[in-house]
Amino acid sequence: MNKTSASSSRPKSEIIVRANLKATLTSTFLFILSYILTTLVLQGVISALARSFRYAVTMTYNHVYALPKDYHRWSKARIIAVYFTAPLFCLGLGILIWIILNSNSRIPSRIRLFMFWLMICFANIFFGQIVCSPLGIRAEHESFYQTFAIVGTWMFISPSVMTFFATMAGVISIVFGVYIYRELLRFSIPGKAVKTGKDGLAFIFQLYAIPIIIGSVPLVLLCNHFSLYTFAFIFANLMLIGFGMAIMNGGRKFWVKSSKTKALWRTPVIEMTLAVVAWACIYLFFRG
Predict the structure, then answer these.
(1) Count of domains observed in the chain
(2) Could you read off the pLDDT of 232-268 as tens digits, one per residue?
(3) Which residues contact 43 (CB under 8 A, 6 or more apart)?
(4) How many CB atoms sit inside 10 A of residue 52's CB?
(5) What is the biggest distance separating any 2 CA atoms in the chain, rounded to whole angstroms?
């Protein structure tokens, strides 16, 4: 029996289950790869900006060490230039990718899904850093003394004010999810299709929630004592974005112009290889 006849002899339900599993795995590997890349971009921009001021910089996946740390060698302007600009740059990249996705609905599905996860991770790293910043003000908890916490400390912003900013960042993350809720549905049915709220929620669960939950396991292994707690807040903020998408999909019917679903039905060999190689390189050589 050849492959074609064997495939045609399978029950339709089995074929659909296998296809959905492959789509979920594809999304999972692309999430892992995107998260690693966006984290490296953030640390790379911080490192490059610090080097531009002639500081001695040691960059790892989890942290950037800029020396000297003496207060008289830094200034408010330099702190903003290094630690505020870097996450803002990531947010800008996320918005740029969002604009590209909105302006072109014909991008191949796997590339589009990769761009979707890059958009999510770039935006989330900005909002997630704000969400955890109140705990890092004045280096009260060293693990959270990063980016916006450093800026807030130098600007003499109180933890209560930073908590307000953190709350707003969480709310904006939900709103962001509301605005991008259609994007995952483009992988549902080729062409134009009517989707119900139940179908939309199922797709968010399949291509967003499950990949984040599964992907968090290898990503946690890349963390060290310095970044583990920050990762927990960034992970929680990813869920807030998903909650925003779920709000817009629940109990509604709408039209959506989608991509070719079958592009996600292939075994994700390339995605798995890239994610595993990236993860292994960070874990073995660059984890810090």
Answers:
(1) 1
(2) 999 999 999 999 988 876 555 555 555 555 667 788 8
(3) 59, 60, 61, 63, 64
(4) 12
(5) 77
Does any domain span residue 2? no
Domain span at residue 186 reads 13-286
Give 42-69 pLDDT, tens digit per residue: 999 999 999 999 999 999 999 888 877 7
Whether 80 is covered by a domain: the verdict is yes
Q: Is the dihedral of CA 103, 24, 40, 133 positive or negative?
A: positive
Residue 190 inside a domain? The answer is yes
pLDDT, tens digit, 9 for 90 and up, residues 167-195: 999 999 999 998 887 777 776 554 444 45
Label the pairing between strands 64-67 and 56-59.
antiparallel
Residue 138 pLDDT class (50, 70, 90 cuts): confident
Q: Residue 192: helix, strand or coil by DSSP?
A: strand
Does 3 fall in a domain?
A: no
Average pLDDT over residues 266-287: 93
Q: What is the pLDDT of residue 198?
A: 65
Q: What letter represents residue 114's amino acid?
A: F
Q: Which of 121, 118, 143, 119 is nearest to 132 (CA)?
A: 143
What DSSP state is assigned to residue 283?
Answer: I
Give CA–CA dist 235/241, Å, rounded.
10
Distances (CA, A) of 228 to 147, 219, 234: 16, 10, 10
- Whether 163 shows a pLDDT value over 90: the answer reads yes
User: Which 8-state DSSP code applies to residue 258?
Assistant: E
Q: Which residue blocks in the chain are alpha helix, DSSP H?
A: 3-9, 12-52, 76-79, 85-103, 109-131, 147-154, 159-179, 197-204, 210-222, 228-249, 269-281
CA distance 225 to 287: 11
Kindly give, in sequence order, each residue whose CB lies less than 8 Å from that of residue 4, ignoring residues fewer than 6 positions away.
none
